[in-house]
Predict the 3D structure of the following.
Amino acid sequence: MAPVTPSRLRPWEAVRVGLRSLAARKLRSVLSALGIAIGIASLVGVLGLSESSKSALLDQISALGTNLLTIEAGTGFGAGDAALPEAAVARVGRVATVEAASAVYSIDAGAYRNDLVPADLTGGIQVFGTSPSLVRTLNGSVAHGSFLTEATRVYPAAVVGSVAAERLGIRSLDPPVMLYVGGRWVEVQGVLEPFALAADLDRAVLVGDAAAERFYDVELAPSRMYLRVDEDYLDETRDVLGATVDPENPEEVQISRPSDLLEAQAAAESSFTGLFLGLGAVALLVGGIGIANVMVIGVVERRGEIGLRRAIGATRAHIRRQFLTEALTLAFLGGTCGVLLGVAVTYGYSVVQGWRVIIPSVALAGGFAAALAIGAVAGLYPAIRAARVSPTEALRSS
Amino acid sequence: MIRPRGSLAAPEPEAPAIELREVTKKYPGSPPVTALDGVSVRISRGEMVAVVGPSGSGKSTMLHVMGTLDNPTSGSVLIEGVDTSVLDDNSLAAIRGRRVGFVFQRFFLLAGVPVVDNVANGLLYAGVARAQRREAAEAVLARVGLGARMWHQPEQLSGGETQRVAVARALVHDPAFVLADEPTGNLDSAASQSLMDLFASLHGEGRTIVVITHNESIASGLPRRLKILDGRLEQDTGAPAP
């Protein structure tokens, strides 16, 4: 008689055996895979959503440009009337790295729909004089009508910020809209889209600088200046601007970079991502414990099956591998569903938010890897226990 | 015959099918249980043996030890002349998977798996491809008279049919020995008789068959009877003269 050939179980047979066992306990399998799916979905979703929203924010920043600087007079002790010197605009224009400069001049007046509105109901709307270049310097755009032009800057004409338009009840410029500004009627030429980098101008009514001088007796001392500078020399330019704007009190000139705020926002979102990733990891851990729990119960319930398999030629290693395969299969199924769910959530939410959909490949690969790792860890102990079951005990127990 | 641990057994042609030498099996615990106490017995090839004795006398333990499902605490078990005490888990599993067919009182069929695949599972660990496993299962199911039940679920079968499926699973790898632990325990008398007729015909084919039974009339119908009491071999009618 020929020597007995050793027992063996091909890997795909082990997978088939595992799948069959899982299929025989459908509800239990689905529920335990669901735990993993939720964990993986939250990991993939958090990574995908944070990447998508960050990229939307970065797109916005780069669209607006990071080379915009805002200059204001300091409001500290001895800062006086908080206006910049009259010559500041001309001086700044002579700095070689300044590509564009626009100023706004504060007008001490309210803007009202008509002359019957009490003067103290300003609606929080400020009135500024400015030049036609402002809208280009700020990369702004008009929703209706047009911005101030070389022609209209000298006339009683106004352009209204997006929030101011809403507060004043201006929805359309047809028929023409008149506003009562500082005791004088002005005609609205245009309504602006929101400014991303100069949100306070959204609440403003802008008239031409020449008109401001002519009708409102304003000295053309800028209350704020907006500058576009050469990005490569941004820091150097920033260093010389104080003395350029106000040679007498350079330390009272405040220079800020509005895009820093958006970048800070992006950084803040990243730190939240860390928190949510931690929560996702906890969900995944709980899912893994669920699988381990189901497998341990399975080992106890399936003692008969384990005994029978040993009787028909399975080695301890075969039993161990079978239970490990089942745990891995559960984790794989859960992981697959989780990745799909995470991608779907990211896709759906990004589309609703109007973001570009970005699903980092590290989230996909990491999601699968995490699921399988959790499955392996969760299945290891039950598998070792299953392999240790004494076949005689298992077959005897009734 | 001494072989290095881990090598696979080459059966000796002239040796008895199963031989127990002074086999003792103790289970630890409080109090410890001595399930087998110095049992020596030789079963030749082609014998059909009944094992009788009260519950807890050690019958099942003896059958498990004979089939290498359990190792004796002391003494040795020789399967076709090969001392199993030098074999590792792998080789013992191989002996169970190739040379031994087990039948249990509780049939241990997998629920939700069609009859033909339950039987084919008997070859699962033998490295046989799935198609061949099924083919072998179909042949052996026809042999036990269940050719029409292949694609039924185990739950749809009667007790007698279920036990026939279990017997088919024990036969699908063409074992030299069939070890049956109370195979008729859950069957009515007609099904029991029909199952014993099946065993008789397997015996007729030259297989070695050991059947544990409570049923006196079944035991008395078999050529040789071993009586176990408190883990000792109380009585052995011996192999009938050829």
Chain A has a mean pLDDT of 88. The two ends of chain A are 38 Å apart (CA to CA). The longest strand of chain A covers residues 98-107. Chain A is about 55% helix and 15% strand.
